[in-house]
Design goal:
Low-confidence stretches: none
Structural class: alpha/beta
Radius of gyration: 17 Å
Shape: globular
Bound molecules: magnesium ion
Order of helices and strands: EEHHHEHEHEHEHEEH
Helix content: 40-55%
CATH topology of the largest domain: Rossmann fold
CATH class of the largest domain: Alpha Beta
Distance between the termini: 13 Å
CATH superfamily of the largest domain: HAD superfamily/HAD-like
Number of domains: 2
Largest sheet: 6 strands, parallel
CATH architecture of the largest domain: 3-Layer(aba) Sandwich
Number of strands: 8
């Protein structure tokens, strides 16, 4: 019987300190001549394609076309990688201990469920030296709808343990959007108040942690 953990990245595992936003703004300025285009737009819990659409709606009054989405994300990735190379990424408290704890348990399968497109996720995890923990994931390039990418991540988690029965899928995230997506997929959800939303806003999760340092004890109490 396996337990699949799906970790969100930004605000849950790490803080990239605005590198994503700076890169998005730089691309929009390059393509449309408008600076600070995402001012006032909240990124937390949203998918990359969703954020692109929100910027287009706010500045141009329409969504991005499929071609614009592709061009935008193509231009975004090298900018993001360059920013991550010069702006240190912060690994959040308790993350390394929690991943080490979970990884040595035979019942646990570790993946990510993130609104980042796959290459963006890889760049951020790589900059934080966390990539080795995660063999699979669901990404913003799988769907602009978070619940759909979480479902995709859960499917890939099941495939990782082909033939093994999955006892539970557990989403770990820092926003109300992570909670809603987990609920839509029938997953358990642990919220951590290290990101965009305060603990009070996350109170409807199955568990709310001040930091991921609390997760090992929760896991041990639930699964023995
Ligand atoms: Mg997040």
């Amino acid at each position: 019987m396996h337990v699949v953990y799906l970790f969100d990245i930004d605000g849950t595992l790490l803080h990239a300190h605005g590198s994503g936003r700076v890169a998005f703004d730089a691309v929009f300025a390059e393509h449309h001549g408008i600076a600070n285009a995402s001012e006032g737009i909240r990124y937390g819990g949203k998918t990359d394609p969703q954020i692109v659409d929100e910027i287009y709606l706010a500045r141009l009054g329409r969504r991005a076309t499929a071609d614009e989405h592709a061009a935008f994300l193509h231009a975004y990735l090298p900018k993001l990688r360059a920013l991550l190379a010069t702006h240190p990424v912060e690994v959040l408290g308790g993350v390394l201990e929690t991943l080490a704890f979970l990884a040595e348990r035979p019942e646990v399968v570790l993946g990510v469920a993130t609104g980042n497109v796959r290459e963006g996720a890889a760049a951020k995890l790589g900059a934080a030296r966390l990539e080795r923990w995660f063999a699979f994931g669901g990404y913003g390039c799988d769907s602009h709808v978070r619940a759909e990418l979480v479902a995709r991540a859960a499917e890939r988690g099941r495939a990782e343990r082909a033939g093994g029965e999955i006892r539970e899928v557990i989403v770990v995230g820092d926003t109300i959007h992570d909670i809603a997506a987990a609920r839509a997929c029938g997953a358990t959800v642990c919220a951590v108040a290290t990101g965009a939303d305060p603990a009070e806003a996350l109170a409807h999760a199955d568990a709310v942690f001040a930091s991921l340092a609390e997760l090992p004890a929760w896991h041990a109490a639930r699964f023995g």
